[in-house]
Amino acid sequence: MLTVGPDRASLTHLIGPDHPFAPVVAVFGAALLTTALLPRTLLSAVGGLVFGFSNGTLYILVGVTLGAILAHTIGRYLGRDFMVRHLRGRLLLIEQAVAKRGILAVVISRMIPLVPFGVSNYLFGTTRVRLRSFIAGTALGALPATLAYAALGSATARGDAAGMSIAGAVILTLGIGGSIGSFLVWRRRPRKHHCLSASAAATPTTASAAA
C-alpha cells in the first residue's frame, strides 16, 4: 500500500467488496496490520475506498480495536513485570495518572496526533489500565478519525470533490484540535517537584515506622 499505491480496481480485484468473506478479510486484516504498526488512518482511508463509508468505518473500527487488544495483551505479558520493577519518579506518576483516569486517558491518547496508535497499544499493556477501559477508550477515541478518513476514501472512490473537501476539512480540524490537546496535556504533565514532594511526604512516615 505504501510503495505501490494501488487504486480501487486493483484492490477489489483481489477480493471484491461484495464477496462473502470480504468483511472477515477486512476486519482481521486490519487487526493484523494494526498490530504490525501500520497507521490506522491509512487503513480507514482504504476501508472507505473499497467498502464505502458505512461498511468501511465499521470493518476498520472493529479491526483496529481487535488489533489494539492483541497488542495490549502482548504488552501486558512481555512488559508489565519489567515496568513494575523499574518505574520510578515522574514516569511512575504518569503511569499512576493514566491508570487512575482509565477510559479518559485512552480516549485522549487516541485523539492526540503525536501519540502513535500502534505503539501506544503496546505501552498501555504495561500499565494498570483495565482491559475493558482500554477497549472502550480505544473504540471511542478512534471513532472520529476513522469516520473522517473512511469518508475521505469513499469520496475519493466516487470522485466526489465536495465530499473530499469536507472530509479533508474535518481531518484538519481533528488535527488542530488534537495538537491543542497535546499541548494542554503536556502542560499538565507531572513535574519534578511533584516527585520531590511525594518523596518528602513519605519520609516522616518511614521514619515513624522505623522508630
Please give a quick description of this structure.
The protein has 211 residues and is mostly helical. The protein has helices spanning 8-14, 22-35, 40-51, 53-86, 89-101, 103-111, 117-125, 131-158, 161-187, 192-210.
3D structure, described in words:
By secondary structure, the protein is an all-alpha fold. Helices cover 82% and strands 0% of the residues. Helix 2 (22-35) runs parallel beside helix 4 (53-86), helix 3 (40-51) packs antiparallel against helix 4 and helix 5 (89-101) crosses helix 6. The radius of gyration is 21 Å and the shape is globular. The chain starts with 7 loop residues before the first helix and ends with a helix.
Write the layout of secondary structure elements.
Layout: H1 8-14, H2 22-35, H3 40-51, H4 53-86, H5 89-101, H6 103-111, H7 117-125, H8 131-158, H9 161-187, H10 192-210
Helix pairs in contact: 2-4, 3-4, 3-8, 4-7, 4-8, 5-6, 6-8, 8-9
What integer is the average pLDDT? 78
Poorly predicted runs are 193-211
Helix content: over 70%
Which secondary-structure class do the elements indicate?
A: mainly alpha
Overall strand count: 0
The succession of helices and strands, N to C, reads: HHHHHHHHHH
Radius of gyration: 21 Å
Q: Tell me the major beta sheet.
A: none
Number of helices: 10
> Span between N and C termini?
66 Å
**Molecular shape:** globular
